[in-house]
Amino acid sequence: MKQNQVGNGSDYKGPNRVFSGMQPTGALHLGNYLGALTKFVDLQNEHECVFCIVDLHAVTVFQDPKLLAGQTREIAAAYLAAGVDPDKAIIYPQAQVAAHTELAWFLNCVARVGWLSRMTQFKDKAGKNSERVSVGLYAYPVLQAADILAFKATHVPVGEDQKQHLELSRDIAQKFNNDFNVPGFFPLPEPLIKGPGARIMSLRDGNKKMSKSDPSDNSRINLTDSPDKIAKKFRKARTDAGMVPDNLDELENRPEVKNLVGIYAALARLSDQDVLDEYAGQGFGTFKPALADLAVEHLRPISAKLNDYLANPGDVDKVLKRGSDKAAEISMPIMDDIRKIMGFWGA
Ligand code: TYM
Q1: What is the pTM of this model?
Q2: Domain residues of the chain, as ranges?
Q3: Catalytic residue among 209, 233, 258, 288
Q4: CB 245, CB 277: distance < 8 Å
C-alpha cells in the first residue's frame, strides 16, 4: 500500500489507517465477499483497520426495528467467519459511535447539493420516486465521507460500485481543508478497488451487479446458502451456447461468461487467463459444476463458522462492544479538533 501522502495531492502526514463498512440489510453475497471482505482480511495483518457495520446507512430505507439489531449482529458474524480478527481489527456498529452523525452534519454544510445530485447510486435507488425517498438517502454519501474522515482513514477497500462515493469523500475532505485553511488536516482517502472480485455480476444478467436487493435469489450466492443451493444456482446461471474461450478478448461480448470466469479466478486466486487456460474449449456443462465445487469448498468453512457465531450471539456482542469503545476512542480527539477548527463555542 502506497503512503497516502505520495502523489495524491494531499498534504496529509498522518499514519495510514484503513476504514470500510457494509450495510446490515440482509445476508452478504459473493459480491460483498470477493469485492470487499476478502480485502479486509488481507489488510488487517499490515495496517490498522476499522471495519464498521453501517446501521445508520441501512435506515435510509425503512428497517424493521425488531430485526435491525439481529441483522447488525449477522454482518459482524460474517466478518468474523470470513477471518476478520477482532484482536487485529476494530469491528463495531456505526450507531454506537456518535462521531458519524455529528461529522455528517458538519460535512453536509461543506458538500454541495450539485455534487450529491450527480450520485448515480442515488438515482438508481430512488428511481422515479426521487421526491418521496428519505432525505437520508440523498445525504447518504456525505455520511459515508464522515465515516471515513472521522477516523482520518487513508485507505478504503470497497467494490467498484463505491468508486463515485469515494471520489465525493475526497472532494469533501479537500473542500474542508481549503475552506478552513487547514491543509493536510483530512487525508484524501484512497479507494482500494482493484482485484479480481471488484465487480461481481448477477448470475441471471451479466450486465447487472450482484445485489442484495435483486428480487431473484437465484441472481446471487449468499454466504449462508447450503452447498446444494450453491450448486443449483451455478447450474442455472445464465451463459451462452458457446464454449469457454481461450483468450480474454473473447470474453468482452459475453458478460455472463466473463462473470463466471471472474468468480472462479477470484475464488481460486488465479488470473482470468489462468482459468481460460485450464478450461478453454470445454462446455459449461463441465465448467459450471467445477465452479460450483470450488465455491462450495471455499464457502463451507465460512458458513460453518457463521452458524457457530450466530448460535453464540453473546460472543459477537462482546466483540461489538469492545470495538465500539475503541472506535470512539480514536474518533473523539479527531472530532475535538474539528470542532475547534470550525470555531464552535466550548471547543
Ligand atoms: P454495501 O453494503 O452495499 O456493500 C458492501 C461492500 O460490498 C461491495 N459490493 C460488491 N463488490 C463486488 N461486486 C458486487 N456485486 C458488490 N456488491 C457490493 C461494495 O462495494 C462494498 O464495498 N455505502 C457502502 C457502505 C459504506 C462504506 C462506508 C464503505 C458506508 N460507509 C465507508 C466504505 C467506507 C455500501 O452500501 O456498501
Answers
A1: 0.96
A2: 17-198+312-342, 217-308
A3: 209
A4: no
> Which residues form the pocket of ligand 1, taking CB atoms under 6 Å from any ligand atom?
19-23, 31-32, 35-36, 54, 57, 144, 147-148, 156, 158-159, 161-162, 165, 197-200, 209-210
Burial of 175 per CB tally in 10 Å (0-12, 13-18, 19+): middle
Q: What would the DSSP string read from start to end of 81-119?
A: HHT--TTTEEEEEGGG-THHHHHHHHHHTTS-HHHHTT-
User: 147-192: per-residue pLDDT in tens?
Assistant: 999 999 999 999 999 999 999 999 999 999 999 999 999 999 999 9
Asked if 209 is an active-site residue, the reply is yes
| Minimal-distance CA residue to ligand 1 atom 27 | 21
Q: Which CATH superfamily is domain 217-308 in?
A: Tyrosyl-Transfer RNA Synthetase (1.10.240.10)
Per-residue pLDDT tens digits for 235-283:
999 999 899 999 999 999 999 999 999 999 999 999 999 999 999 999 9
Taking the centre of ligand 1 as the mean of its atom positions, its distance from the CA of residue 23, in whole angstroms, is 8
Q: What's the gap in Å between 154 CA and the centre of ligand 1?
A: 17
Active site residue 125: yes
Greatest alpha-carbon span in the chain: 71
The residue nearest atom 18 of ligand 1, judged by CA position, is 32
What percentage of the chain has pLDDT greater than the value 70? Answer: 97
Decide if 128 is catalytic. no
CATH number of 17-198+312-342: 3.40.50.620
| Each residue's pLDDT tens digit, 56-75 | 999 999 999 999 999 999 99
Q: According to the model, what pLDDT value does residue 130 have? A: 86
Q: How many Å apart are CA 5 and CA 190, to the nearest integer?
A: 10
